[in-house]
Design goal:
The chain is an all-alpha fold and about 170 residues long. It is built from 5 helices and no strands. About 5% of the residues have low confidence.
């Protein structure tokens, strides 16, 4: 039970921190080798690129988890105040459907990559690992969107204050 709670609370953040840390170290080593040693590592840029791809897709899931994705608030304020919560939920449902469509097509792409057996040029890792990033990221995103929708539906009756604009900080 504690493992499930930890996964629910920390999974995406832990993966993103780990990927960003390794990415930074690899790039620092590459800079050192290029400018101090006068030679370049053949694998560092490729590894950095693939780690960044994974970081982006896991980051999308984290953004859904903390409900901080970019949205157009100006469009939301075109709706009556009592309808805005429903509009947000409809938007979340649309994004959930989008995430599931991406998972479906990404799965097909991963299966094709496994059959082809393509390897990356420098590191010789199977390319299906790289192509799995959208599938895994959007699968996590779908789970987080479902959690968000459930949370918003449970809290439909809660009073929500309008954000106040602090003119001092502008």
């Amino acid at each position: 039970m504690k493992l499930l709670q930890w996964l629910d609370e920390k999974l995406e953040m832990t993966i993103c921190i780990t990927l960003m840390s390794i990415l930074s170290v690899v790039l620092a080593i590459q800079v050192f080798f290029r400018y101090v040693m006068g030679d370049s590592l053949s694998w560092s840029e490729e590894l950095s690129r693939y780690m960044f791809v994974w970081l982006v897709y896991i980051g999308i899931a984290y953004g859904c988890k903390v409900m901080r994705h970019i949205k157009i608030d100006a469009g939301l304020y075109l709706f009556p105040k009592n309808a805005r919560k429903y509009v947000v939920i409809i938007g979340d449902i649309i994004f959930l459907c989008f995430a599931l469509v991406i998972v479906y097509y990404a799965y097909g792409l991963v299966v094709k990559q496994i059959k082809i057996g393509q390897l990356s040029p420098a590191m010789q890792i199977p390319m299906w690992i790289v192509y799995a990033a959208p599938m895994v990221g959007f699968a996590l995103t779908a789970i987080r969107q479902l959690q968000t929708i459930i949370f918003r539906v449970k809290h439909l009756g809660d009073e929500e204050k309008e954000p106040e604009i602090d003119l001092k900080n502008l």
